[in-house]
Amino acid sequence: MAASSAMQSILARPPLNRVVSNRSTNRVNQLLTPTSYVPHLPRYASSMRVRCMAEEDQQEQPKPATTSPSPPQPQQTPRPAPKVSTKFSDVLAFSGPAPERINGRLAMIGFVAALAVELSNGQNVFEQISNGGIPWFLGTSIVLSFASLIPLFQGVSVESKSKGLMTSNAEMWNGRFAMLGLVALAFTEYVKGGTLI
Description:
The chain is mainly alpha-helical. It has helices spanning 2-12, 23-32, 88-91, 99-121, 125-153, 168-192. Helix 4 (99-121) packs across helix 6 (168-192).
């Protein structure tokens, strides 16, 4: 509130106009009196009002100066979480809940599967893809995509299911690292010309 009243006083102040004919007096006046730029306001500016849009629970409560016990305050009920949009365009939007999570889940499974096949058969990622890996990739992608999208279309948010060690942020970071790891594994094997291990 103090900031808005300060801004109103600055904007409502008329511009400082000084007319001085003598050059030496003008220099002295410039050194002694501060000048500030005040923009010209349109005539409807005086009817413009500033209002606070803060919510009730965010406003500061004044603390009593005395140390006497206060009467018990009624408990505030927590506000329900906002509804999650179930529109197809919102779920699959660039910043929506589905794309990065689905890609991260696929990358986590792909990275572990690529390393497991490489350790068991000695095939690098490119050999795995060319020797029948495409149907496995497509099947896994379809199953995991549908399994990830069904709860989102039912209005269940990922954050509501995260508890303890397995949080939605941990899943997001693990997915990001798996995406980087899968690309790094393929790039290293390409440059090296063979398997990593």
